[in-house]
């Protein structure tokens, strides 16, 4: 079974932030209490998305996104444009 980009993003966030995938959803704020992503975490998430999905994100791109859903939407739109 092939995983979707959304599934891969959830896995990346879960692995980098040591949070169960069931512990967050599309409405979860990336830098909020549940995920508590700091600058280094955001850099690692951006690098993993680039490496696994081929979508380059700057730290500023991710910091401008409020929620996990925003991140998924941005990556999906970038993948559709490629």
TrEMBL record:
For the Carrier domain, which residue ranges apply? 3-79
**Pfam families from the entry?**
PP-binding (PF00550)
The highest taxon in the source lineage is Archaea
Q: What is this protein called?
A: Carrier domain-containing protein
Species annotation: Haloarcula pellucida
